[in-house]
């Protein structure tokens, strides 16, 4: 079992949702801690506040790409291929997760478990797959795992 997988499971046991876990891993890879950012990700779990809409692993994955390749200050510029990276993640998620579960909404993926606000074991798998896909996309586009851009 990889260190990342062990850390994901630890965060899950601590009650963090899919989006929070993805951003926590991203921050930890950068050697950063930002409870406010993790707190803000709470609303994405369960498909936008357990409304069953777009899966929090997908929205969290887009936020993770944004953490590494987006713009955070007036002086910064987002990565030239940022929107392409987001599109790649969305296309992958629709093709892999959407096909497997009949859609990309949490309601499609969790079914009855959503009403009980139960996080299914399939969520862990989706979070791991999404995290790995985000890392693959970043590397393909020259974004280092610690946030440095390979110009």
From TrEMBL:
InterPro entries: CGCAxxGCC_motif, Multihaem_cyt_sf. It holds the Pfam family C_GCAxxG_C_C. It comes from the Bacteria. This is Putative redox-active protein (C_GCAxxG_C_C). The lineage of its organism: Bacteria, Bacillati, Bacillota, Clostridia, Eubacteriales.
